[in-house]
Design brief:
This protein has about 140 residues and is an alpha+beta fold. It is about 15% helix and about 35% strand. Strands 1, 2, 3, 4, 5 and 6 form a 6-stranded antiparallel β-sheet that branches.
C-alpha cells in the first residue's frame, strides 16, 4: 500500500493539534502502541477537534456518524512519550466532511488517517450546519 502524499505529513499544515498521553494498557506484546489503541487515540482527537471547532455546538438536535475510516500505520509508536494528533478539515460536502489526521511522536509521523463524518437527523443524512460550513475555512488544511 502506498504511503500518503508527503505534503500531508507536515504537521504545520494542520490548524488543530492535541496531545494525548498513551497508557501502558495501549501496548502490544512488543511494547509498541497497538493498532486498536492508535485508532482510539485518533477518534479521541477528532472528538476534541469537533468540540473546539464548534461542530458539536452547532448541530442543534442533529447527530453525526462515521461513514468511513482509513488508517495508514507509518511507524511504531512507543510508551510513554506523548502523541500529538494534528487535524484539518480536508473536504466539505453537502451532508458530510472529511477530516485528515496526522499522528506524530517526537519528530516522526506514526499514522495518517482520514475519517468521513456524516451529519444525520431523524430521517437520515442532512446538510451540514450552515454556521459550521461558514467558519470551516479556518479549520482546513493549510497550503
Amino acid at each position: 500500500m502506498p504511503k500518503p502524499d508527503p505534503a500531508l505529513l507536515d504537521p504545520r499544515r494542520y490548524p488543530f493539534t492535541c496531545r494525548i498521553e498513551p497508557r501502558f494498557g495501549d501496548l502490544d506484546v512488543n511494547l509498541h502502541i497497538n493498532n486498536v489503541a492508535m485508532a482510539s487515540l485518533l477518534e479521541e482527537a477528532h472528538v476534541r477537534f469537533h468540540r473546539v471547532s464548534g461542530y458539536h455546538a452547532r448541530q442543534a438536535g442533529l447527530s453525526s456518524m462515521v461513514a468511513s475510516v482509513t488508517i495508514d500505520y507509518l511507524r511504531e509508536a512507543s510508551y510513554p512519550d506523548p502523541i500529538e494528533i494534528h487535524i484539518a478539515a480536508e473536504h466539505m460536502g453537502r451532508t458530510s466532511h472529511v477530516l485528515a489526521k496526522l499522528a506524530t511522536q517526537g519528530e516522526h509521523a506514526i499514522a495518517f488517517s482520514r475519517t468521513v463524518i456524516v451529519t444525520v437527523g431523524a430521517e437520515g443524512p442532512v446538510p451540514l450546519p450552515g454556521s459550521f460550513v461558514e467558519q470551516a475555512e479556518q479549520w482546513t488544511l493549510r497550503a
